[in-house]
Amino acid sequence: MSSFFRFLVGSLSCIFINNLSKYNNLDLKLKADIKKKLSNLKKNITATKTHKIFNTKLINILLSEKLSSFLRFQFVQKMFFVHNRLFILKELNQLRSSDNWKFYKKLIIEDNAGNPIRYIFYPFSSGNRIHQVYHLHILNKNFQIDLKKINTILELGGGYGLLARIFSLINKSVKYTIFDTFIVNLLQYYYLEILKLKTNFSKKKKINFYLINKIKDLKFNNKRFLSDLFIANWSLSEFPLKYRNRFIKFIFQSKLILISFQEKFEDIDNLKYFTLLKDRLSKRFIIKIIKNKYYYGNFFKKHNHYYFIAKLR
Questions:
Q1: What is the per-residue pLDDT across 97-127, written as a single tens digit (0 to 9) for each?
Q2: Fewer C-beta neighbours within 10 Å, C or N terminus of the chain?
Q3: Neighbours of 251 (CB within 10 A)
Q4: CA–CA separation, 185 and 191 (whole Å)
């Protein structure tokens, strides 16, 4: 039912067509490279049943001839992409009423890459792009920071790479690291490379966008601060509690924190978890836990969502 509803709502934007022709040559090259990277991996996926299902579905998309339109796949939309939802209009109106609207207006201009569904009430953008920029607005509004001065970013779970793309427009010299599974890294690789943003799967090479899937590769030359900004939008909050602890040191060594989370995930009380994390980090950071006024999950499963944002004291 939810898939049909998502398709129905998304079809409202069918009159807005993205031109993908300029990506054709690079698309063929990237598809061949992804097939090569996946050739040995397909036989050796070791994960839980849930992750095996996720991996299999995403691999099928990565190997599809329609990869250039990956944002039209129901599975990708379910996991990574918000489109024609009414709460997006409320977020858009908040951006419009902001003193930084001229800045945000440029950031929400959607690319054609991935064939995104255009937002029915603002076809210059997509619902997902507006949603991502709204996250940055929350951080900016509460701490009056200059997003252009953020030079190093670590994002835990990067979706298909949209925030990395947005920051490439904010600061052309930004150093952006996404930590995710290797298979999701491949989707991010396709999206960023099709936009001619050079990526690398190792931090040994000096480049702007790193796609990392091993914790041991998250070292930043033992500097005091690992990043100017740590981002985890609905990623850390979906990890098992024991696994979350591996990332606390990366949060602790950041200057700014932007985390989005749902009130409960499976049997975990996330609101309680992040309240305790606030107490744990409060000596080092000014921290706010803010309820998202507009977002309540999907139509079939409503629950509260929050921001955990912090700034170094």
A1: 999 999 999 999 999 999 999 999 999 999 9
A2: N
A3: 24
A4: 10
Tokens linked to 78: 């379910």
Q: Are 97 and 107 contacting, i.e. CB atoms less than 8 angstroms apart?
A: no
pTM confidence score: 0.92
Cα–Cα distance measured from residue 185 to residue 169, given in angstroms and rounded to the nearest whole number: 21
Of 235, 183, 214, 236, nearest to 55 by C-alpha is 183
> What does residue 40 show for φ and ψ, rounded to 5 degrees?
-90, -25
